[in-house]
Amino acid sequence: MNNTMDHLFFRRCCRSIRRFFPALLLLAAISSCQKTGFTYNNIVDNNQATDYILSDTLTVQMKTVQQDSMPTSGSEVLLTGKRIDPLFGTSTLQSFFQIAQPASVEIPVNGSRYDSMVLIMHPNGYIAGDSLLQQEIQVYRVTEKIQTAQNFYYLYNSSNFKTESTPIGSFTGIIRPHTDKTVTVHMSDQLGGQLFAMLRDKSGDITANNTWLEFFKGLNVRGGANSQSVSGFAANDTSLVMRLYYHINEQITTVKYVDFKMQASNLQFNRVVTDRTGTPIAALTGNVKVLPSASTGNQGFAQPITGAAARIDIPYIKNLSGLGQFFKVMKVYMTLKPVSGSYQNDRLPPRVALCEVNTLNQVTDTLTYGQLTIDHQLNENTNYTFDITNYVIKQQTVTDINSRGLLLTPSATDGRTTLDRLVIGDQQNLKNRVKIQLYYLLYK
Fold first, then answer.
1. Contact call for residues 405 and 309 (beta carbons, < 8 A)
2. Which residues contact 184 (CB under 8 A, 6 or more apart)?
3. 3-state secondary structure (DSSP) of residue 320
4. Nearest 10 degrees: CA dihedral of 66, 71, 77, 81?
5. pLDDT at residue number 400
6. Which of 69, 112, 251, 271 is deepest in the core (most CB within 10 A)?
7. pLDDT given at position 93
């Protein structure tokens, strides 16, 4: 009997605790506020009210901006080919790099013969486009010294160096990025024979690095006229090699080779040329650096390697404190939805960075990263979610000159080494609307 009574008493206590638990949580949150006059004792005044409120009515402004040149050097990724994108335009990519002369090699003058020369490339698994179509790769000899501009540390997507007008190597075939271990580009036998003779005769142009780079300034790898996708390759001194084959006639013919390896990874870079004619952001060219989302179908566009980025502003953050005598932001979340149909043939960036930018759209800080959530079932709630609490709190009190907007871009690594892109809806987009959830305490 006593056990039964105890059990009933315990159940009643649990129901009472559950009933008043939300109020207890609210009291605990309020007690942490530090504003003068806003203390735990305030809430006992029956003439006052304290609210814990969720609001999703904050005004959001969106635009697509054209950034200055994007650094692409030192990424150890070679990109080459052409991609036709109805939303972002036709992008043509090519890569420049230096190669080093081989270590000292002894080749007998008598009995040795040149065979062939190839450029060996290793796919890194990335492709933008149809991997079942034949691809064309051409290799050109660079005629201008590859170097950074004075007082600059990087080479950019807009950097360029002169080359010979005729290719010295070519490849045509299907590249299977996930299964092919190497792609072999056959090189000019005329050049190969010349390099072989220089190695055999120990020419001064090939024995010292400074004279070698004057003689052979580097290579340029680009897609051919019929390229229909962009392929990625590893770019370092073990994965990007020009290999010269020769043989020595002895009692048994011996086939040998010597490697000219890529060098100076900080000077290897990818050049990008984009034609946006016929796209929603075609007007983003020349002196036009900003397009409001209202003029681009209520959408924002981001593709770092071509310079496009989506900027988001929340213009009335400073007005929030006018909601009551005592106001405190608790949490703020921003949810961005990729526009339906914009990523059917292109992967969505797995990670997206949210950066602070000034009025000139220059990045001043990286705030956070948003992870991709994919709605595999209905394909309606695929989104990126960001916690922007600290950003909103900070922007409440900054001066106009220190005010910052938000720039959306794939992560720095993906942004420099892929054609990953993102199209998001603005606040007037009917199906893929940007959403901000503001949780705040209001003591009236």
1. no
2. 118, 119, 120, 121, 171
3. helix
4. 40
5. 76
6. 271
7. 97
Residue holding tokens 């300034």?
217
Q: Which residues, given as ranges, of the chain have pLDDT below 50?
A: 1-47
* Rounded Cα distance, 265 and 163, in Å: 19
The Cα–Cα gap between 185 and 248 comes to 24
> Nearest-CA neighbor of 274 among 408, 444, 419?
419
pLDDT at residue 146, as a whole number: 96
**Domains and their CATH numbers in the chain:** 53-68+277-443 (2.60.120), 77-267 (no CATH)
The count of other CB atoms within 10 Å of the CB of residue 442 is 17
Q: Tell me which residue of 18, 17, 43, 13 sits closest to 28, measured CA to CA.
A: 43
Tell me if 409 sits within 8 A of 355, measured CB to CB.
yes
Token pair recorded at residue 369 = 């990263």
Report the relative pairing of strands 77-85 and 230-234 from DSSP bridges: antiparallel
CA distance linking residue 149 with residue 168, whole number of Å:
27
Count of CB atoms within 10 A of residue 110's CB?
6
The residues, ordered by sequence, that sit 6+ positions from 193 with a Cβ below 8 Å of its Cβ are: 114
State how far the alpha carbon of 268 is from the alpha carbons of 71, 79, 148, 287, 426, in Å.
11, 11, 11, 29, 37
Angstrom distance (rounded) from CA 61 to CA 314: 6
Give residues with Cβ within 8 angstroms of 270, minimum separation 6.
Answer: 72, 75, 77, 78, 79, 93, 94, 95, 157, 305, 416, 417
d(CA 206, CA 228): 37
Q: Are 332 and 439 in contact (CB under 8 A)?
A: yes
Between β-strands 326-336 and 308-313, what pairing exists: parallel, antiparallel or unpaired? unpaired
Per-residue model confidence (pLDDT) at position 359: 87
Give bridge partners of residue 256 from the DSSP assignment: 246
- DSSP characters over 167-199: -SEEEEEE--TTT---EEEEE-HHHHHHHHHHH
Separation between Cα atoms, residue 219 and residue 120, nearest integer Å: 13
Q: Count CB neighbours of 108 within 10 A.
A: 10
Which tokens is 110 given? Answer: 């008598």
Across-strand partners of 383? 373
